């Protein structure tokens, strides 16, 4: 493709190739449905223009059969497209369980990425090729939207909730990454680079930008320094739920309902502790809303997550 | 033969006789002037935006300046041009004439709507003077409620006020259409223009209050920190989006349904034939209005709403294409064996159909979940809605202007100039907005003031097109203005069209009909001439 004028975006995953195929088929369909209109309008306008001799006898003003057919045929084609595209949409919302986790925090106006090993980067995201990656995203202020055109993916990052995105990049390279939801003055500068690396190169990169402290370990430190362990720790005198093994398990609430202890539940328990109260415990936990930043909360979540799997990791 | 009474234009020449008029035709002219004014203001903002995008660094404006320019462009174009344009100018002027009534049901309410519109407009101009607002016309929270340093409350007030004008106009149209049809004009004999305004009015009355409430909530949240949309107080930013789009999606049908009504009239008159499948075309307006209420979630596919909700919204959004498609196919069939006048109104109608088809079909792409994930909030969307709203609605608006101008002002204009304008708008429009589909698919997000250099060529093409387009939009000022003082007088029915509005003199007398007509046939009752030519 020429440098002067690009016509098709680069593609960095198998999924984006499938989107492109759908787009091609759609385009073909669009041409098939609309070309007759364009051609016939032009042809009739010329053939039946006033003053020109033409056969204008037996004019019809209605024909129910024809009309039903041109409502029904497009409808059936549309249903086919709907099924195709919706199935693809569902796949990108169901990450494989073994996906590698990366935390993302968006704020006016930068992207912060944190790998499980504690490596952080700003406005750059390094990922290995051929491995499913799941981004768990939070916003510190307004709504942002993480957009990686080469993957044909984007997802809003909404304050107050975690959203996620997963992909498996399969072509090493450097691609664009942008914010797609208008987020204030420097919205258009909230861009970065999405860097897909071969596995050994990625391992080397992790090594070189590595820290000694994993996210979970940092979370553990926060757990102590913010006094969480005072209530939730083994030696605590206050009656608070034990967090070991909590992640991923069902939690009965005081109002009788059940929730699953996922990232969102843990986050809300820290920042909005009065909104979902675990059954059997007094609602005494204070909010950490103005104490912890989104990335600190994510570290705490990582720590609590690690408690769930302590048995099977040495 | 009775002497013709003086025309509505001659019934009083003082400023007072205009500003206190309750004649629907004069109020239409007041709207014509004010809507045109806002079109120019909004267009100037678009020009700034396009000039700034000539270079990837956006050298012309600052970041803030750019954000304020596109926000004002959006706010003004949506609420002060697109929504009021066709209903308030042409609906006002034509509905009573077309159904054989002497005026709308509530003439004084009609005048009040205009004053409310102007009051809202005044607020917007004040916002413009004190520095503008930077949230985009969509006012997403928490940006608008907590982080913006623009004049959000003032703009919300402006839009809130103008909403009342919409509601009153809608009510007035509904009652008028129900109560004031001339004897013999059953629902099956109503012109399609009136049908589409009926559908539009239903949306106006049902949807606008939701917008008003939403704007009050935004203002309250900003001023008093209520926390309805603020997650740190337990609120939900997505709630805002649901409320906003529950109004704003139907609002796009408010913008386009009246245009569809105009095109049906223009096509029938140009072909000198009844519209093919009258009842399907009338019914599809109502179908669009109803389904249009259940598709708002298609603006939120990547917002984090449940994927099952998204699937339902996707399906319903795709379904709206069917009634829209019916109209396009029916118009095409109307031309078959017609006797077609290639005059400016018909050229605008053809241009409408072309642009509306492109806009509508790319809307299907956006309604498909997995494609929308890629192109949402990119230039693809900007191109799509400009095709519908600017290509579609404005072509229809100009078509209506060129078709009913002789009726409104009693003067013909030079047809050649009208043809040149229609062709230039069509060409300029495509040059402006087609490259934006490619830009968006390549991954250029919208509302970007600086962008990657590889997008520049397409942006330059688009800016060149917009210059041409802007120029073409200004052309009618010259020849239509000129026609008012120097052209030949128009006859009662210069196009040989059917419809009650063409049975009264041009311009019509103050009370439209000396005697209320009785309708005896179906609309578009053109003589079937078996002759080869007219
Ligand atoms: C020469 C004509 C026009 C040009 C060149 C133009 C250009 C633009 C551009 C570049 C944007 C995108 C700003 C962005 O998101 O970065 C925009 C947005 C918009 N335009 Fe236009 N426009 C034109 C005419 C119109 C007209 C006539 C209308 C309505 C009647 C209109 C309605 C809108 C709306 C509603 C938006 C969305 C604003 C937003 O993003 O908040 N435009 N226009
Ligand atoms: Cu952002």
Automatic annotation (TrEMBL), chain A:
<keyword id="KW-0349">Heme</keyword>
<feature type="transmembrane region" description="Helical">
    <location>
        <begin position="65"/>
        <end position="84"/>
    </location>
</feature>
<dbReference type="GO" id="GO:0042773">
    <property type="term" value="P:ATP synthesis coupled electron transport"/>
</dbReference>
<keyword id="KW-0186">Copper</keyword>
<feature type="domain" description="Cytochrome oxidase subunit II transmembrane region profile">
    <location>
        <begin position="1"/>
        <end position="96"/>
    </location>
</feature>
<dbReference type="Pfam" id="PF00034">
    <property type="entry name" value="Cytochrom_C"/>
</dbReference>
<keyword id="KW-1278">Translocase</keyword>
<dbReference type="GO" id="GO:0016491">
    <property type="term" value="F:oxidoreductase activity"/>
</dbReference>
<keyword id="KW-0812">Transmembrane</keyword>
<keyword id="KW-0813">Transport</keyword>
<dbReference type="InterPro" id="IPR001505">
    <property type="entry name" value="Copper_CuA"/>
</dbReference>
<keyword id="KW-1133">Transmembrane helix</keyword>
<dbReference type="GO" id="GO:0005507">
    <property type="term" value="F:copper ion binding"/>
</dbReference>
<dbReference type="Pfam" id="PF00116">
    <property type="entry name" value="COX2"/>
</dbReference>
<dbReference type="GO" id="GO:0004129">
    <property type="term" value="F:cytochrome-c oxidase activity"/>
</dbReference>
<keyword id="KW-0249">Electron transport</keyword>
<keyword id="KW-0679">Respiratory chain</keyword>
<comment type="similarity">
    <text>Belongs to the cytochrome c oxidase subunit 2 family.</text>
</comment>
<dbReference type="InterPro" id="IPR036257">
    <property type="entry name" value="Cyt_c_oxidase_su2_TM_sf"/>
</dbReference>
<dbReference type="InterPro" id="IPR002429">
    <property type="entry name" value="CcO_II-like_C"/>
</dbReference>
<feature type="transmembrane region" description="Helical">
    <location>
        <begin position="21"/>
        <end position="44"/>
    </location>
</feature>
<dbReference type="InterPro" id="IPR011759">
    <property type="entry name" value="Cyt_c_oxidase_su2_TM_dom"/>
</dbReference>
From TrEMBL, chain B:
<dbReference type="InterPro" id="IPR000883">
    <property type="entry name" value="Cyt_C_Oxase_1"/>
</dbReference>
<dbReference type="InterPro" id="IPR023616">
    <property type="entry name" value="Cyt_c_oxase-like_su1_dom"/>
</dbReference>
<feature type="transmembrane region" description="Helical">
    <location>
        <begin position="308"/>
        <end position="326"/>
    </location>
</feature>
<keyword id="KW-1133">Transmembrane helix</keyword>
<feature type="transmembrane region" description="Helical">
    <location>
        <begin position="244"/>
        <end position="263"/>
    </location>
</feature>
<keyword id="KW-0472">Membrane</keyword>
<dbReference type="InterPro" id="IPR023615">
    <property type="entry name" value="Cyt_c_Oxase_su1_BS"/>
</dbReference>
<keyword id="KW-0813">Transport</keyword>
<dbReference type="GO" id="GO:0020037">
    <property type="term" value="F:heme binding"/>
</dbReference>
<dbReference type="Pfam" id="PF00115">
    <property type="entry name" value="COX1"/>
</dbReference>
<feature type="transmembrane region" description="Helical">
    <location>
        <begin position="458"/>
        <end position="482"/>
    </location>
</feature>
<feature type="transmembrane region" description="Helical">
    <location>
        <begin position="69"/>
        <end position="90"/>
    </location>
</feature>
<protein>
    <submittedName>
        <fullName>Cbb3-type cytochrome c oxidase subunit I</fullName>
    </submittedName>
</protein>
<comment type="similarity">
    <text>Belongs to the heme-copper respiratory oxidase family.</text>
</comment>
<feature type="transmembrane region" description="Helical">
    <location>
        <begin position="417"/>
        <end position="438"/>
    </location>
</feature>
<keyword id="KW-0679">Respiratory chain</keyword>
<feature type="transmembrane region" description="Helical">
    <location>
        <begin position="346"/>
        <end position="371"/>
    </location>
</feature>
<dbReference type="GO" id="GO:0009060">
    <property type="term" value="P:aerobic respiration"/>
</dbReference>
<keyword id="KW-0812">Transmembrane</keyword>
<feature type="transmembrane region" description="Helical">
    <location>
        <begin position="111"/>
        <end position="133"/>
    </location>
</feature>
<feature type="transmembrane region" description="Helical">
    <location>
        <begin position="28"/>
        <end position="49"/>
    </location>
</feature>
<dbReference type="GO" id="GO:0015990">
    <property type="term" value="P:electron transport coupled proton transport"/>
</dbReference>
